[in-house]
Amino acid sequence: MASDVQVITIIIIVVTFAVSLIVRRRKPAPLRPISAYSVLPTLAGESIESSRPLHIGFGGASLGDENTMLALVAAEAAYYAIQPATIGDIAPILTTSETSTIPLAVDTLRRAYASRHMLASYTSTNVRWYPAGPRALAYSGALTTLAGDDRINSHVLVGRYGVELSLVLASAGRRGLTTIATSSTLEGQAVAYAMADHALIGDEIFGGAAYLSGSAHLANRNLTIDLLRWALIIAMLLLLAANLAQQYSA
User: 79-102 pLDDT, tens per residue?
Assistant: First the structure.
């Protein structure tokens, strides 16, 4: 069994490198339009013009467990979303309900300011931790007060949320705030799809950096992932067909 796993792993690595070489190109690969990523640069511009901060919430995404990849991908997307807003008078606000995500959020904010040579305007106090219970109601309740206390311009909620996400989105709707939302849980995803102005569905969050950065390398990475996904589907269908043929022949 171990040898089979090793062979499969080697095949996956070889195929990944092969596909990466095939799609390597200097110009960015064309990406299908996603409304959340199309409107996000506009929200950053509105934040600068209105001197009202852009809010990015990581929710319950944390490091060191099954949500580690989600937290890292959310931070990567947040980095590119924050960059345009760093030239404004008001710094973006990053929030989380997990203590393990605080250093990640602080570093994301710092790197965004450093990339635009605006470290003099950087302040780590714009990363906030709101303790939450099992259902993160305290965190969601705290986010509903941001619009009034900090006069935020919009919500970008990318992370782990449950049905309590509806509290934040309902409050934002009453105040006329634009919202972008997604969640790693099925309940949170359903709420985001039904109530957010722009929802990210499924694995769309994992391609955020390519959409926001305009990098050819990251766009080609998305294309590589799509090709590998189709290759995996075709391989599964072929294996299924082979198993069915073997059963009928027996």
Answer: 888 888 888 888 899 999 888 899
